[in-house]
Amino acid sequence: MNCKEFENASALYLYDELRGSERAEFEAHLAACAACRARLEESQRLHRLLTDCPRPEPTPDLLARCRQTLDEALDHEELGWRSLLRGWMWSFGAAPATRAAAALTLIVFGFGLGWTLRPRAAALPVAGGEPTQAGFNPSDLSNLHIRSISQVTPDPQSGGVRITLDAERRVTLEGSLDDPRIRQVLVDTMKGYDNPGIRRDTLDALRMQTDDPSVRGALMYAMARDPNAGVRLEALKTVQHMECGADTHQGLLNVVEHDSNAGVRAAAIDALVQHLQQEGMDDAVLAAFERLATSDRDPVVRMRCLTAVRRLQGNG
Amino acid sequence: MDGICLELTGQLGTSQPGEAEVERSLIRRAQRGDRAAFDALVRRYDQEVLRMALKIVRSSDEAQDLYQEVFLKVYRSIGQFRLESRFSTWLYRVVMNVCYDHLRRQRTRGEVQATENEDGQPDFAQTLTEDRPISNPDRALTAKEISGRLQAALTRLTPRERMVFELKHCQGLKLRAIGEMCGTSEEAAKNSLFRALQKLRVDLRDLA
Ligand SMILES: [Zn+2]
Ligand SMILES: [Zn+2]
Prior knowledge:
The structure holds two protein chains of two kinds. Chain A is built from 15 helices and four strands. Chain A is α+β, with helices and mostly antiparallel strands. The longest helix of chain A is centred in the first third of the chain and has 19 residues, at 34-52. Chain A is elongated, with a radius of gyration of 32 Å. In chain A, 31% of the residues are buried. Chain B is mainly alpha-helical. Chain B has eight helices and no strands. Chain B has helices at residues 19-31, 35-56, 60-77, 87-108, 143-155, 159-170, 175-181, 186-203. In chain B, helix 1 (19-31) packs across helix 2 and helix 7 packs across helix 8 (186-203). The structure holds zinc ion (2 copies). Residues 244, 248-249, 275, 279 of chain A line the site of one zinc ion (ZN). One zinc ion binds at residues 3, 6, 29, 33, 35-36 of chain A.
């Protein structure tokens, strides 16, 4: 190794990037050449200066700010769109449902069997009971760039629902809640769509179908995870009043324990008390209440759990 | 974005046995759209990401932007992450890309990087615990002054030189890993490092 090669190698030496033989040659030259020893010392001083120089550490305050803005940004993310569209493709790939109830509802809407995708401005008149796919073609949908959902309108009378989307052009999907594909869209909207107002409307539509497992799943999901406390609360009220299932109490209990909003937690406590008063004791719930009554971080929740325990034990 | 597999020095995240399984399960859940799992993943790495961002940019506001951009990118593309790769490596690559783009944008805009924040203080100096002299006592330069000089010198590096320097000098990564992370060869990374050190040597000659 000559002096020129040594100079190039010295940075690698300081960063411990010289391989065995290179390193041996480097050290041999170092031992033999005073000029290069001096030069290496100079490099070492720069190295140390760059290392000594204080580096900023994130303050807890900055970290907290970062986390909060990220949280808000994620709330607005459109991840929901991908899952929505995926669910859609899947549902269009399936054979159309021909259950009597679905057909009935769709006739009420004036459309053919299955569901209809059409530009809202150009409502197509549909001939008598004749099944019509008004211009619908699944490949149209896959090419459709959807921007947002502008409306979800359930019709409690007919059990139908109308979903209006802003795409390159505005389109409306109409169908019965009995149609699993419509439910799939609603379930995906409930779980993934970024507008809390739309999620609330979707909740209203789903509320009419709580005997469907995927709808129940979406309601439980919204109750546990919707970013909007108002939507969580409404989902909770729906869960409270739908038929009690194997996971209902645990779901409510999770809300009591983990929800970030004190009002939602309180509502979950009340919902469980109501269930237990109607159905009889659930030891797991009672034990959780007893634990929370002494150990919860929030004094209001502690008090409410204590009251609940007293009421339930007075009852039993 | 491909999840290439590199052996890193373990600066990001932990890799105890069992831990890896926990992390894989968080990733799987996040890939299915589970926001709580994604949040947990963020919490595992975000301090280190922020620390890296603060090394690359001047102000905490910019670092906050980079932080957000990194994790939004991760959120959008986590579905493409392959579980057999190391998540920390993949995340690290996202960080590098985001920082690199940031530095390039700054350059193209021809921004002269502010050396002071709105209070007229060098921004980095706010985080120093004390204003102690750390170099040649004859010059009695304060940590604050040295920090200011170093920051000024760093802004004269090209984005790639800057990234390579930070990854090598501050993160202690191997040049081979840096090359892969920045999408070039080990040799190219080495040359960038040489050029960076050469520029820093010239700029900081009187301090060293
Ligand atoms: Zn020599
Ligand atoms: Zn019950």
